[in-house]
Amino acid sequence: MKTANQDIKPITTRINDNGNIEIGGCDLIELANKYATPLYVFDEETIRSMTKSYKDAFKSYPNMRMMFASKAFMTKSICKIMAQEGFGLDLCSGGEIYTAYSAGFDMSKTLFNGNNKSYEELELAVKLGIETISCDNFFELALLNNVAMANDKQVNILLRITPGIECHTHEYIQTGHLDSKFGFDLTQIDEAIEIIKDEYKNLKLIGLHAHIGSQIFEKQVYFDEVEVIFKEIKRIKDKFGINLNTVNLGGGLGIKYTEKDKPISVYEIAETIINSIKINTEKYGIEKPIVYIEPGRSIIGTAGVTLYTAGSSKQVPNGRRYQAVDGGMSDNPRPSLYQAEYTVEIANKPNETETELVTISGKHCESGDILAKDVLLPVIEEGDVICFYDTGAYGYSMSTNYNRVLKPAAVLVNNGKSDIIINRQTYEQLCESDVIPDRLNG
Ligand SMILES: Cc1ncc(COP(=O)(O)O)c(C=O)c1O
């Protein structure tokens, strides 16, 4: 069955009677006029359609736990939606922990990941009652044990491992050792277990965690990931007599940014994982564990679009035509970071013929601030509203104030209604952390 991550546009996208693009029953031009641009627009139906697809696809495995990877897009409203959908949260910083907590999220349904968690972050996690902490390295094991001791707590932990599988879109490599900043190499697991057993009495090892990549288009990697982890669980059981009953498979399912992308459906991933669990529990003679997954991009990516207003333009003699917009690498650093490509339309001209090859540039003082290179669009005029699809994941969450540009607002649309979920930053907020020492005031 097809799922929303396999389409470029949010599921409610259509051209309305005004001849404009509409999402969630809201005319994008009216949204741009009401809230100004740049503007992130999130379609609630698309978000909920993805969470429902995940729940439905995995329903035959009752020990499944869905955790939304908050790093993809984290606001208090998203926490509310995830709670309503029965999802937990995968958190990876003190800021994400604090946001979940202040949104009233049930902290016993949250996990904490990350390769360099600080004492303060770990303490916040322990004090607020995070369910499980995925430990990344030896340094963290010692730090967390100290935190747990100081707070008189026993903390459930997973060991994050690098299973020797790496997958980024089309590339898939299996190696004995992975050159990664994350997690324990398979050869380091035994040493970690020895230390936990002998020294870290406030840590309770309950399972293993891995995350094999992002924007994944293949099923086989998930099958193999389950196999590698289950093999380790069996080995640990035989060697140490420890029964690990929890496995976290991470996130990674891809979305369709452009026609070139061919992401698979949530149902295909679920079938592969459930099948691999069945085969490998039988093969290794272990109990069926509690299995977590942490999808981020596939839940929120397709649901979000960014609206910009066209400003200045430049025709390089015998060269490219550049069209500048009122945002850029500060609201979406993905194109300049890793040449990410997007599908673009003019929200007030969806029916016009695409006659012009144009490069959409941002407004930042950086030649690399290009949002889309050589895209074929109708002729753009100043004031047109340009819509970038699939900016819901890793857009706002990676945004910056580069050039002291304000962070845009975000609205949630549904059934003709639009609600602000993030206010546009103000100049006052931009300066509120700045301090002038007295000696500079003289
Ligand atoms: C540990 C972990 N889990 C989950 C995710 C979410 O991945 P995605 O957004 O590709 O689903 C990430 C992303 O980097 C991650 O590092």
What is the third-level CATH name, the topology of the domain at 44-300? Answer: TIM Barrel
The H-level CATH homologous superfamily of the domain at 44-300, spelled out, is Alanine racemase
Amino-to-carboxy terminus distance: 69 Å
Number of helices: 13
User: Can you summarize the main beta sheet?
Assistant: 9 strands, mixed
Bound molecules: pyridoxal-5'-phosphate
Structural class: alpha/beta
Mean pLDDT: 96
Low-confidence residue ranges: none
The amount of helix comes to 25-40%
Describe the structure.
By secondary structure, the protein is α/β, with parallel strands linked by helices. A hairpin with a 2-residue loop joins strand 10 and strand 11 (171-174). Strands 4, 16, 17, 18, 19, 20, 21, 22 and 23 form a nine-stranded mixed beta sheet that branches. Helix 2 (44-57) runs parallel beside helix 9 (266-284), helix 5 (119-127) crosses helix 6 (138-150) and helix 8 packs parallel to helix 9 (266-284). It has a domain at 44-300: TIM Barrel, CATH 3.20.20. It has helices at 28-35, 44-57, 76-84, 94-102, 119-127, 138-150, 189-198, 220-240, 266-284, 297-300, 334-338, 427-431, 438-441; strands spanning 14-15, 21-23, 26-27, 39-43, 64-69, 88-91, 110-112, 132-135, 155-162, 165-168, 171-174, 184-185, 203-209, 246-248, 290-293, 304-315, 321-325, 344-346, 356-361, 370-377, 385-389, 409-414, 417-422. It has 13 helices and 23 strands.
